[in-house]
Amino acid sequence: MVLTDKNIEPIKVILKKELLEEWKRQGHFESGKIVEELDFLIEREFGRTSIVGLMYPYGTYQDAGVSAENIPFSPGSGAKKSKYIDALIGFVQRRMAVADLKEAKSVAFAIAHTQKKEGMPTRGALSYSSTGKRTGWVSEAIEKAGPKLGIYIRQFYREFMTAEFESVITKNIKKI
Q1: In this predicted model, which residue has the larger pLDDT, 34 or 120?
Q2: Which residue segment(s) compose the domain that 152 sits in?
Q3: CA–CA dist 104, 101 (Å, integer)
Q4: Is the domain of 56 the same as that of 13?
Q5: Which of 29, 69, 94, 158, CA to CA, is 20 to 30 A from 151?
């Protein structure tokens, strides 16, 4: 028995559930797309098997945060267009339900200025969290999923070892 895309499914379900719940607890939830579209790969290397999660890059930024010096905003630069500002405007319109474009731009620039001073998340962003945290959602979720994953993994390896043992016995019986 080998770890495959089919038998990894229970692990995916457990992890996705816990990741989504922690993401919501920390106040990041908007559409759920980041967790719903999360995918897992099985990597085998040097006799080790790993399960690797793949998600949209902004999930990593929400997990680790971004220092103030790495916020992609340069006030007074004269830039006519900024993907960062455009993304903030979209966020303000969706998350804060600000329909007026002029007002949304104003709020987006206020957020950008604050993030440029404090980094991301800002101190004000903590008000969206029920855990008091706005970073580390991935490790928190994995830690909380640990006991459930342990049960599944122990069961998987028990079945694997039983199948291997039975295979060895069957081969040796044919030799006798």
Answers
A1: 120
A2: 1-65+131-176
A3: 5
A4: yes
A5: 29
User: Which string of b and e fits 141-160 if b means at least 16 CB within 10 Å?
Assistant: beebbeebbeebeeebeeee
Tallying the residues shown for the chain, one arrives at 176
Listed in sequence order, the DSSP H helices in the chain are 9-25, 33-36, 57-64, 83-95, 101-118, 137-175
Whether 34 maps to a domain, the answer reads yes
Residue 96: DSSP 8-state: S
Question: Is the confidence at residue 29, as pLDDT, over 60?
Answer: yes
Q: Are 64 and 135 in contact (CB under 8 A)?
A: yes
Give a yes or no: residue 16 inside a domain.
yes
Domain count, the chain: 2
d(CA 41, CA 167): 28
How far is it, in rounded angstroms, from Cα 16 to Cα 53? 10
Do 25 and 54 lie in one domain? The reply is yes
